[in-house]
Amino acid sequence: MQQLLTFTIIGLSTGAIYAVVASGLVVTYTTSGIFNLAHGATGMLAAFTYWQLRFDWDVPAPIALFLTLFVLCPLFGALTERVVMRGLQGTTEVVRLSVTVALFAFMIGLANWVWPSDSSREAFLKFFEGNSVSIAGINVSWHRIITFGCAILVAIVLRLVLFRTRMGVAMRAVVDDRNLTELNGGRPDRVSMFAWALSATLAGLAGILLAGEQQLNIEPLVLLVINAYAAAIIGRLKNLPLTFLGAAVLGLLDSYYLAYSDESWFPQSAFGFSLAGIRAAIPTIVLFIALLTRPQSRLRAGIVRFREETRVPEWSTSILGAVSLVAVVVAISGMLTRSNTLLLLNGFTMAIVALSLVPLTGYAGQMSLAPLTFAGLGAIAMAKLPGDGNIATFVLAVVIVAVVGGIVALPALRLSGIYLALSTAAFAVLVTKLVFNQKQTFQSGNIAVPILKIPFVEIDSPRGRLILTATAFSLLGLLVVAVRRSRLGRRLIALKDSPAAAATLGMNLTRTKVAAFALSAGIGACAGALAGDKVSPQQYDFTQSLPVVLLAVVGGVGTVGGALFGGLLLGGNSVLASVVPSLKNLSKILPGTIGITLGRNPSGAATQTAEAFRVLKGRWNLLVFIGAGAFVIWALTAADVLSHWTFVVTGVVWFLAVAPNLPLVVASSSARRATAVVYLAAGLVITAAIDWSTALDVTGQRLIAIVILVAVIGLGAQRIMESGPRVRADSPDVIGLDRDFSGEEIERAERELRVVIR
Amino acid sequence: MSLLYVDRVIVRFGGVTAVDGVNLLARAGEVTGLIGPNGAGKTTLFNVISGMQEPTGGSVSLDSVDITDLPAHKRAQRGMARTFQRLELFGSLSVRDNIKVAAELAALTNVNSIVDEMIERVGIADIADRPAGDLPTGSARLVEIARALATRPKLLLLDEPASGLDEAESDRLGELLRTLAATGLGVLLVEHDMGLVMKVCDVIYVLDLGQIIAHGTPNEIQHDPKVLEAYLGAS
Ligand SMILES: Nc1ncnc2c1ncn2[C@@H]1O[C@H](COP(=O)(O)OP(=O)(O)OP(=O)(O)O)[C@@H](O)[C@H]1O
Ligand SMILES: [Mg+2]
Fold this sequence. Notes:
Helix content of chain B: 25-40%
Largest interface: A-B, 36 and 46 residues
Shape of chain A: globular
CATH architecture of the largest domain in chain A: Orthogonal Bundle
Number of helices of chain B: 9
Distance between the termini of chain A: 79 Å
Distance between the termini of chain B: 38 Å
Shape of chain B: globular
Largest sheet of chain B: 6 strands, mixed
Number of strands of chain A: 6
Structural class of chain A: mainly alpha
Radius of gyration of chain A: 28 Å
Largest sheet of chain A: 2 strands, antiparallel
Helix content of chain A: over 70%
Radius of gyration of chain B: 17 Å
Oligomer: heterodimer
Structural class of chain B: alpha/beta
Number of strands of chain B: 10
Strand order of the largest sheet of chain A: 1-2
Strand order of the largest sheet of chain B: 6-7-8-3-9-10
Bound molecules: adenosine-5'-triphosphate, magnesium ion
Number of helices of chain A: 31
CATH class of the largest domain in chain A: Mainly Alpha
């Protein structure tokens, strides 16, 4: 009895913290429609900041608290809204979620950078450490009582703010209709800024309270948010009392598990599987149940959608791209050191994982946060199935995982948007905790995945595996292109663009989604099954999936090129981190920083780059010229005139700075053309003349040099050709006053306004 | 023989009763009009018929089969197609592919020729290869009609197809609807353009505040005092 009571109090106080976090989540979701995956990370940063002030710099507690919760947190929240979130109005759910993933990655990177975990820190003390009162014979620390007090205070304050203040009323109005609020003189931007500030303060409060219980650790603080998600989903993302109830239930479950899991009657395993990982999985299981019991998402028409990449990939370009990718990898792989080969190999593996998101997220618009989980399952299947890695084993492994992907997706498919994304996250965490951490799957922490056996080809070196993986990427890329051009591809896009129209034309949405999930799981499984090395469960952890999703979206999840770009960026990022210790910290926040800019360029970087090269399409003479140039650079290297690093730098400059400018050079006036040619040639000669292997002795510095060279040479040439009077578009304010609307402008206005002017 | 039979359908949104016991009947080979002031419940009724909105009460039958519990795609497979008041084109597909998706969904064999036929029929050959998301409203409405027709439906539901069309296009649409009806297709037409409605409809239902207040031939409707009041007097 005594024990029950003690653990009830512990559970409720944990629940109180969850409640505070969850209410912050609800506040931002309802006002801006953005589900903030980085909410827990905000609390984590706040806890670290408070620790810095209070325990490292010895600022008195009240002042430190005030500064953290009422100055820095609101400032941070408001800034996040202003700089990052505001640009996201009207973008897809995928982009919005990815941006919060980016924010999440950014904040974790920042915390790792500023507060490296190896430094021996001052302890994070509870409030009034050591003081406790006795209630009904049980000692309750003051910290717990303060935690309860805070949760109750938050509940009351939120209630008052939402229902009694003008800001609160405005917040609730924005939820209903942003545009209408604006028409009525409300200022939705100010309102959501306030909501984000408030939400950050709530996250901060919870972070500080939790750190007092569990010390400062990045991971538990960040994952705190999963518990909060579960509570918020129980509250259907809008009902605060229900959210508080859900939080209490979660806190109690966790605490009772702690209390009774050692008892003899408690099951320690089921079906031969150990249940040891179940504690960490409790919130996820609750989240899963809460999601699956949600009502079926209704078909709705009239949702304004943001349009992304629309072009159908051509066979000719795709095959050319696939072949040249393999050729380039074969050509340069001989020049790489062993460690760089492994990093590039990792990049291509990640590219395959990112590719698995193209049909699912890019085409069908279904967000998955679990792409690596399927890679992990693929690796296990490849290792466990008989045949020791022959082709049949590989095919079977991929098919099994694809089927699993389809089946697992089935219950989740009643959901859409954020709910679907969260249920994939829950699935990933469950698989990590309950499957990957089993003795049967990963004995002694890792398993050896056999190398794929291809008849007549012996693959044993990292170089061979690199070429194999790059070839696999190319082939799978072609498969994805084939899908895009097929009936299924059109259906997937239709599903994304208008589920309502698709259904009323006779499309079985569930079946289409299952197909998309199975296809995606199958492609993801290839990445795992091709690992060809020892792998560990950590590699396929849920938290590792997030950066992959992020970089796939950054690269442009609608295209195969985007997946390649994203995967290599992820691989390249670890190149940066491993080779240049001084850049290690920068590389921690790099993916996050790039992702945060997504709001400005939602189609992804690869699409933009492709746009720059599109001018070359069909200009065969120029393409031949570019190919010849590349051959010359390669030949010079093969003849040992150029060092390998000079080869890389010159090659990149040739492709990225010179090639896209060629059509412009051809088209510009003769005087400018001469200047531009001289400028480009000089840049190229200087680049090739420097022996980059000796000039800069750190790879990171060389990479930076590449970026600078490309920018200076490429943009410089553009400048030369464009200088002089620029063609300026008329200001929209002037059109209609000093000249008539053109037909095109009328059409555009009609489209924007959805009305007819004539 | 009735193609579509709507029996005492009720839809409530919280406190609002958007559709309040509507009975309606549409025949094959006829154009049935459904008119009424803004907010009368026309689109909501369309959503019920097409399976996007579960009714609070009442039933819907197609070809004398009760389809009230069927999901939207099953109704489409039974020969129903619709267009949307707020456009629902597949914006990242080309116009041609929009129509192709529909034809493929209807499991038709010679898909490409059907697509060409629909493009021809609705008169959108000049924009067939443009991305559907870039079209002005008028053309987009025509594409939606072509897309719906490509499933070879028995019943076509059109929600304000003429808004956004110019006068010539609107006349062409009227002719198209008459031709389609002559081939045996049943059309249910929601439209605010009274000229068009009076010209093409065989029967007209008038909906006001969720209830049918009158039905009859165009001539009868034009002279019905209740209709005049709903449109002019109520406000
Ligand atoms: N999802 C919904 N939730 C709540 N109320 C709704 C919903 N959809 C429609 N309504 C209400 O139901 C009523 C009927 O709307 P509906 O869109 O069917 O009218 P309509 O006849 O199509 O009007 P219009 O001619 O403007 O298109 C309106 O009062 C509208 O506000
Ligand atoms: Mg309507």
